[in-house]
Design brief:
The protein is mostly helical. The chain contains 22 helices and two strands.
């Protein structure tokens, strides 16, 4: 909600002080926990944190007296009182009202928890405000991704995030890892499970979750959870981000995304838990087994492809969890939240109709009109199924005639690689040992990618379907592109063609630049094209050359991953935001094509 203040200058100073306090709080946490030993005195850093709490408290008091509608302000910040009350109870009652052995440590934990919640809430809510600031929305989105990548880079370069202090992570490798995690790609230059500590792995996991679902969505979730309604600008921004049809469904859509994500990832982690014990020595303790399960569940659902195992999932080639848990997580995560919401609504309506038919048959015909699958959902589900089946068949065919056929489990391996190639990036067989025909098939699947509104990359399934139906309409001499007995507007078809051409140009450009920067390695162009396609489609599959790229080659892949995640059309819109459409048309003249 939009709050109005009496003195705008005072509010500007309050905002500046709050931003400075939040940055200082984050810096103190880095100094305390990011190094082998604190950079400054622990007593001094804890004193600074306590002082920051008073700054936040003063911010609330100043705004309370400066706001025009105090009741609206208290309603918007209702959660502040319980947080402060909890902090005071712990600080005053530790050792007095309830028994705690180390009173000082309990107070410091409460202070740290309060500051972390304050900083997270302010950052997330700021993302929603920034997206609705009236600036170029695509530039704001790019800025958010770059800020997230830089923050992840700094955290990954901390000594506590790395295991090998004799060979510390370089700036380029840190940016590469942070970009790959934020863009949910999965290409790695360092072993995620071996070269990063638990802190570094948690940083990567956080970047995957924020980058996959979007930090702006998290800001909207937090705003709604805290009881803050979105103003018109914020609602329009969230509507555009979520592709919601009406603004009054934004709250339900955000709640579905957040709740559905947590539920699906939690179920995936629980079902995946027994899988890690099938390889002796892989996981040492139950706690580590749970972390492996959570990490891979989030990585699979967000279509990231990051794995804590050195060779991805090759050691679990025959494990049922790979095909029964990880593969479904990849498919569901790649369908898009809009499609998942539509499917959930259809299933709920049918379930409710069945209940009403059994319990109140006289009111059955008074129910609301039936909820049906939208055209977007039909295209996504049909295209995804066709691509999975077609990819599986082609991989089976090409690997059967290749010099290195997979004798056992060929069907499951082909099925899994067909699923994961469309943006997840896990692999159960060595990609470098596959035939050239199979790798070309994987390149085609990587370029197509997942579906709109999902963490997946590529040109998207709907774009591919429209291209195919455009060819079909031309061959049948139809004046419009038709899908499931519905006509598609010409502007949508033009956008699909534009996206595809931009992706192909990006693929050729990235491959050409890699051929120049990596010429001394002597790698075949097919491996470089595979690497470029994997980065563009934010997939993460590789023939094994990623860690050995030159510094220039790594930066080419970094930029390619970022463009592939944001989309070439998004970047083009950012550059042409102020370009006004022409108000005239030139006379037409016939041309011969083909």
């Amino acid at each position: 909600m939009r709050l109005h203040y009496k003195n705008s200058t005072l509010e500007a100073w309050v905002i500046a002080a709050t931003v400075l306090a939040a940055m200082t709080a984050a810096t103190t946490f880095v100094m305390l926990y990011g190094f082998d030993r604190p950079v400054l005195s622990e007593t001094l850093l804890h004193a600074v944190q306590i002082a920051i709490i008073f700054v936040f408290f003063g911010e609330k008091l100043v705004r309370l007296f400066n706001v025009l509608d105090k009741r609206q302000y208290l309603r918007a910040n209702w959660f502040e009182a319980p947080l402060l009350l909890t902090l005071v109870v712990v600080a005053v009652g530790a050792g007095r009202w309830f028994a705690i052995e180390h009173r000082a440590e309990a107070i410091l934990v409460a202070v740290s928890a309060y500051l972390v919640l304050q900083v997270i809430s302010k950052v997330c809510l700021s993302m929603v405000v920034l997206s609705a600031s009236g600036l170029n929305p695509t530039r704001a989105l790019i800025g958010i991704f770059l800020a997230l990548i830089l923050a992840g880079t700094g955290l990954l370069m901390l000594p506590k995030a790395q295991t090998h202090h004799d060979a510390p992570l370089s700036f380029t490798d840190a940016v590469f890892t942070a970009t790959s995690a934020t863009c949910v790609t999965g290409l790695v230059v360092r072993d995620t499970g071996g070269d990063f500590t638990r802190m570094g792995q948690i940083v990567i996991l956080t970047l995957i979750q924020l980058g996959g679902l979007g930090i702006v969505i998290f800001g909207g979730v937090l705003a709604l959870m805290l009881g803050q309604s979105l103003n018109v600008k914020e609602a329009v921004a969230m509507q555009d981000l979520l592709s919601a049809q009406t603004m009054n469904r934004i709250g339900a859509m955000i709640a579905f995304i957040f709740g559905g994500t947590l539920l699906i990832e939690a179920l995936g982690a629980v079902m995946m838990y027994p899988m890690w014990s099938t390889v002796p020595g892989m996981v040492a303790s139950p706690d580590e087994q749970w972390f492996f399960s959570i990490f891979h569940a989030v990585s699979a659902f967000c279509n990231a492809g990051f794995s804590l195992c050195t060779n991805s999932l090759e050691l679990f080639h025959g494990a049922w969890g790979v095909y029964g848990v990880i593969a479904p997580l990849i498919i569901v995560g790649g369908l898009g939240f809009g499609v998942l919401h539509n499917i959930a609504c259809v299933l709920w309506f049918r379930f409710w109709r069945m209940i009403r038919r059994q319990s109140c048959p006289e009111h059955f015909f008074k129910m609301n009109p039936p909820v049906r699958l939208q055209l977007q959902s039909k295209i996504v589900l049909t295209t995804s199924a066709i691509l999975i089946v077609a990819g599986t068949v082609l991989l089976l065919l090409f690997e059967q005639v290749s010099p290195n056929p997979q004798a056992d489990g060929r069907l499951l391996s082909a099925l899994f690689q067909s699923i994961t190639a469309r943006t997840a990036g896990f692999n159960t067989i060595p990609i470098a040992e596959m035939s050239e025909a199979s790798r070309l098939t994987l390149i085609a699947l990587m370029l197509i990618g997942g579906s709109p509104g999902s963490p997946a990359g590529g040109i998207k399934t709907v774009t591919f379907a429209l291209l195919v139906m455009s060819v079909y309409a031309t061959l049948r001499k139809r004046r419009e592109v038709e899908v499931f007995k519905r006509s598609v507007r010409l502007v949508v078809v033009g956008r699909a063609i534009t996206v595809t051409i931009l992706f192909l140009i990006l693929l050729l450009t990235a491959t050409l630049m890699l051929c120049v920067t990596e010429r001394h390695h002597g790698w075949p162009m097919g491996d470089l094209a595979f690497e470029a396609a994997s980065a563009i489609g934010t997939v993460g599959l590789s023939t094994g050359i990623t860690p050995f790229l030159t510094t220039a080659g790594k930066w080419i892949i970094i930029l390619t991953m970022l463009v592939g995640r944001l989309g070439p059309l998004t970047l083009l819109a950012a550059l042409m935001f102020n370009v006004k459409p022409a108000g005239y048309d030139y006379p037409s003249e016939p041309l011969m094509v083909g």
